[in-house]
Design brief:
Elements (H helix, E strand, L loop, with lengths): L4 H42 L3 H49 L13 H13 L9 H17 L7 H13 L4 E6 L3 E6 L1 H22 L9
Antiparallel strand pairs: 1-2
Length: about 220
C-alpha cells in the first residue's frame, strides 16, 4: 500500500476537527454542571450572601451557555478554513512540481483558496470552482473573515452588511442573527454548521484527490 502523506494529513486533520466538535458538545454541559456544583459548595462553606452567589452563578451560566459555545464554533470555522487553504495550496504546489510547470502559484493574486483554485485549473485542467462544495468553502472563508476581522459583527458598512445577510440567507437554521449590545448584530454559528462544513470539506478533497489520481485517495471512499 502506498501512503500519500498529503492525502493522509488532510483527512486526519478533518477527522481531528470532527472529534473536537463532538468533544465540545459532550463536555460543555458536564463542565458547566461541575463548575456550578463547585461554586455552590464554596458559597455554602464560606456563608456567601445569596445575591453574591446568584451573581456568580449567572456569570458561570453565561460563560458555558454563550461564550464557550460561541468561541468554540468561531474557533472551528477558523481551523476549517486553515485546513482548506493550506491543503489546497499544498495540492496546487505539488501538481505544479509534478507537471514541471514554470508557472508559480505565488504569481497569482487573491486569497490562498482562490489562487490555488486558479492554479489547478491552469496547470492541471481541474476546475475546483465547479465542485458542489466550492460555494460552501467560499462561504466558510467569508465567515472566517467576518469573525477574524470584524469580531462576527454585522457592522455599519453596506458591503459588510450584505455579506452578513447573505450568509444568513444561504445557511438558514445553521447561522443566526444575535444581538450584541451595544455593538449591534453579530453572527451566531451553530455546531451543526461546523459539522456540515467539515463534511463538505472532506467530500471536496475526496473528489479533488481522486480527480488528480493521488495514490491512496481510494482509501477514503
Amino acid at each position: 500500500m502506498i501512503i500519500d502523506w498529503l492525502v493522509a494529513d488532510t483527512f486526519a486533520s478533518i477527522s481531528g476537527i470532527k472529534a473536537l466538535l463532538d468533544h465540545a458538545d459532550r463536555s460543555m454541559p458536564e463542565m458547566e454542571w461541575q463548575e456550578q456544583e463547585n461554586l455552590k459548595k464554596l458559597a455554602e462553606s464560606e456563608g456567601w450572601d445569596y445575591h453574591d452567589y446568584d451573581a456568580e452563578r449567572q456569570g458561570l451560566e453565561a460563560d458555558y451557555r454563550h461564550w464557550v459555545p460561541k468561541y468554540s464554533a468561531y474557533s472551528a470555522v477558523i481551523i476549517l478554513c486553515s485546513i482548506a487553504e493550506t491543503r489546497l495550496v499544498a495540492c496546487a504546489e505539488r501538481v505544479g512540481t509534478d507537471c514541471k510547470s514554470t508557472f508559480v502559484l505565488k504569481e497569482l493574486k487573491g486569497s490562498p483558496l482562490e489562487a490555488a483554485a486558479r492554479y489547478l485549473k491552469r496547470v492541471a485542467g481541474v476546475d475546483v470552482a465547479t465542485d458542489a462544495a466550492w460555494k460552501y468553502l467560499r462561504d466558510m472563508q467569508t465567515l472566517r473573515n467576518l469573525i477574524v476581522h470584524r469580531g462576527g459583527l454585522r457592522g455599519s458598512d453596506l458591503n459588510h452588511q450584505r455579506e452578513f445577510d447573505g450568509l444568513l440567507a444561504r445557511h438558514e437554521h445553521r447561522l443566526f442573527r444575535s444581538k450584541n449590545l451595544p455593538f449591534g448584530e453579530e453572527i451566531w454559528v451553530s455546531m451543526e454548521f461546523c459539522r456540515v462544513s467539515a463534511a463538505e470539506l472532506q467530500s471536496f478533497f475526496m473528489r479533488l484527490f481522486r480527480s488528480l489520481g493521488f495514490p491512496d485517495s481510494r482509501l477514503w471512499q
